[in-house]
Amino acid sequence: QSVLTQPPSASGTPGQRVTISCSGSSSNIGSNYVYWYQQLPGTAPKLLIYRNNQRPSGVPDRFSGSKSGTSASLAISGLRSEDEADYYCAAWDVGVVFGGGTKLTVL
Amino acid sequence: EVQLVESGGGLVQPGGSLKLSCAASGFTFSGSAMHWVRQASGKGLEWVGRIRSKANSYATAYAASVKGRFTISRDDSKNTAYLQMNSLKTEDTAVYYCTRLSVDTGGFDYWGQGTLVTVSS
């Protein structure tokens, strides 16, 4: 049982916009930044979004993050086949807490 | 080029011990906080613990699930972090990643390839 709650799956067709939600509490998302990680099959996670809505260099602007209260979301616009991956939200709490992950399928 | 290379994984019996290493290169290791994150097969990410830099007194912190059994240490002269795992349980079976906490972003910007630890009789 993960501290942060994500939907287990999401899907979309190429070119569509999809969003992935992440719900927490006042001790994590409510009082700290949210981070998003992308994990392609068989690889290590990659930092996708930091401090709620910032993109590291090299991450396409198709990826965006937002936060409101104790919830956050990741949006992916112009969906591409290479976006098919697992996505995890994370935040500081007592240590770092992660969401259970959302498997994104590009139909 | 930044690299984090884990080693030391393998098969161990319940109650046994194992020590993982994480060799770093391409960045100022001594100034970085290093974390361990694990992932059971088909499951999500779980934070294991961290060790801060010398400037922050090498402070450590652990997830409740491993506290008292796991110990994180580092040798800055070797650019290496370690995860000593004792009293291993079957539920500790996972791929263990070491990762660097970025001061710039506050996130984990570099990850190793992971090393598999299997706890089974």
Keywords:
heterodimer; A: 107 residues; mainly beta; six-stranded mixed sheet; three-stranded antiparallel sheet; 47% strand; globular; B: 121 residues; seven-stranded mixed sheet; four-stranded antiparallel sheet; 11 strands; 51% strand
Explain how this protein is built:
- The complex is a heterodimer of chains A (107) and B (121).
- Chain A is mostly beta strands and 107 residues long.
- Helices cover 0% and strands 47% of the residues of chain A.
- Chain A has no helices and nine strands.
- In chain A, strands 1, 3, 4, 7, 8 and 9 form a six-stranded mixed β-sheet that branches. Chain A has a three-stranded antiparallel β-sheet with strand order 2-6-5, with no helix packed on it.
- In chain A, a hairpin with a 2-residue loop joins strand 5 and strand 6.
- Chain A is globular and about 35 Å long.
- Chain B is an all-beta fold and 121 residues long.
- In chain B, 0% of the residues lie in helices and 51% in strands.
- Chain B is built from no helices and eleven strands.
- In chain B, the strands form two sheets. In chain B, strands 2, 4, 5, 6, 9, 10 and 11 form a seven-stranded mixed β-sheet that branches. Chain B has a four-stranded antiparallel β-sheet with strand order 1-3-8-7, with no helix packed on it.
- At the A-B interface, strand 3 and strand 8 of A face strand 5 and strand 10 of B.
Question: Could you provide a short overview of the structure?
Answer:
The complex is a heterodimer of chains A (107) and B (121). With 107 residues, chain A is an all-beta fold.
Could you state the order of secondary-structure elements of chain A as H and E? Answer: EEEEEEEEE
Strand coverage percent of chain B: over 45%
Overall residue-averaged pLDDT value of chain B: 97
Low-confidence stretches of chain A are none
Compute the number of strand runs of chain A: 9
- Overall helicity of chain A: under 10%
- How many beta strands in the DSSP annotation of chain B? 11
Q: Quote the distance from N terminus to C terminus of chain A.
A: 28 Å
Strand content of chain A: over 45%
Q: Which structural class matches the secondary elements of chain A?
A: mainly beta
Structural class of chain B: mainly beta
